Recover the amino acids of this structure.
C-alpha cells in the first residue's frame, strides 16, 4: 500500500475509507511481535496526505523499477523529500555532523548556480523535463549529484519540489496569518522571520539569500525573472493556505507573494556567510 500511494492517489470516493483504515492501524495495539503495523500505517498516512494534495506522480513514463525500489527503501529509510526539517537534519547527522542546513537544499541550490541558472531565461518558471527531475530525485536521495547534469531547470525544479514537499511548510502554519497581515511591512516581516524556529529561520534565510542573487538587475535582464516573478514561483513553496474557500485562497495568494517579495527586498542575509 505504501508503494502504491507513492504513484497512485486514491479516488475521491475511496479516500475517506482508506484514510480511516490507515488511521485505525496507526495504533500500537495493532502491532504483531514481528510486524510493526503502526510503522507501516504511519508511513502510509504521510504518503496519503501527500498524494491527496499533489496528485499522481508526474511524467511520461510508467514507474521504473528503480523508482519502485526507492519507494520500498523509503519505508525503512526516511527520504529527504516529504519529511520535516528536523527529520531531514537527523537523517544527515552522521554523514554531515557539522552542517547547519540540509545538504539537499544547499547541494541543489549550488547546482543551479553551477549550471549558470542565474543567467538562464525563465529559471524557476520553466519546468525541467519531468522524467529527468524524477531521476535526479532518486540520485539525491542516495546523496549523489550526477556529473551529467547540464540543464539548470532540472535541479531548479527539484529544489522547488523539495520545499513544496516538506511535511510541514517552511513557514509553519502558526505564523501564516501574521505573514498575510504584514505582507508589505518590511520591519514586521523581518520580525516574523526572527521568531521562526531555528532550523526554519536558517533554511528560509538561505532561500532568500539564494533568490537575492537572481534578483540582481544584471541577472534579471537575462532571466526575465524579477522579484515579482521569483516571489510568484516561490511563495507557494514557503507558505500554505489552509482555507478551502476559493476567494480566501485567491486573495491570500497575492499576499503570500507580497510577503516573499518583501523579504527578498528587505531581509539582511549577510550573516549566513559566517554560518556557511
Amino acid at each position: 500500500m505504501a508503494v502504491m500511494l507513492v504513484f497512485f492517489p486514491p479516488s475521491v470516493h475511496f479516500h475517506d475509507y482508506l484514510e480511516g483504515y490507515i488511521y485505525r492501524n496507526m495504533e500500537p495495539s495493532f502491532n504483531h511481535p514481528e510486524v510493526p503495523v503502526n510503522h507501516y500505517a504511519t508511513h502510509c498516512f504521510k504518503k496519503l496526505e501527500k498524494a491527496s494534495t499533489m496528485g499522481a506522480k508526474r511524467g511520461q513514463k510508467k514507474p521504473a523499477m528503480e523508482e519502485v525500489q526507492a519507494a520500498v527503501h523509503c519505508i525503512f529509510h526516511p527520504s529527504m523529500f516529504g519529511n520535516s526539517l528536523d527529520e531531514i537534519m537527523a537523517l544527515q547527522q552522521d554523514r554531515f555532523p557539522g552542517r547547519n542546513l540540509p545538504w539537499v537544499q544547499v547541494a541543489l541550490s549550488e547546482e543551479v548556480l553551477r549550471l549558470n541558472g542565474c543567467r538562464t531565461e525563465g529559471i524557476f518558471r520553466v519546468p525541467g523535463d519531468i522524467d529527468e527531475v524524477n531521476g535526479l530525485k532518486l540520485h539525491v536521495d542516495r546523496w549523489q549529484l550526477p556529473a551529467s547534469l547540464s540543464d539548470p531547470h532540472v535541479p531548479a525544479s527539484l529544489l522547488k519540489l523539495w520545499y513544496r514537499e516538506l511535511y510541514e511548510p517552511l513557514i509553519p502554519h502558526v505564523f501564516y496569518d501574521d505573514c498575510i497581515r504584514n505582507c508589505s511591512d518590511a520591519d514586521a516581516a523581518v520580525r516574523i522571520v526572527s521568531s521562526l524556529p531555528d532550523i526554519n529561520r536558517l533554511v528560509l534565510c538561505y532561500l532568500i539569500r539564494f533568490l537575492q542573487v537572481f534578483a540582481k538587475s544584471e541577472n534579471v535582464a537575462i532571466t526575465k525573472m524579477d522579484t515579482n516573478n521569483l516571489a510568484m514561483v516561490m511563495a507557494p513553496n514557503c507558505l500554505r493556505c489552509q482555507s478551502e474557500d476559493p476567494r480566501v485562497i485567491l486573495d491570500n495568494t497575492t499576499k503570500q507573494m507580497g510577503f516573499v517579495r518583501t523579504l527578498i527586498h528587505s531581509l539582511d542575509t549577510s550573516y549566513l556567510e559566517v554560518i556557511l
Q: What stands out?
A: Residues 246-266 form the longest helix (21 residues). The mean pLDDT is 90. The radius of gyration is 19 Å.
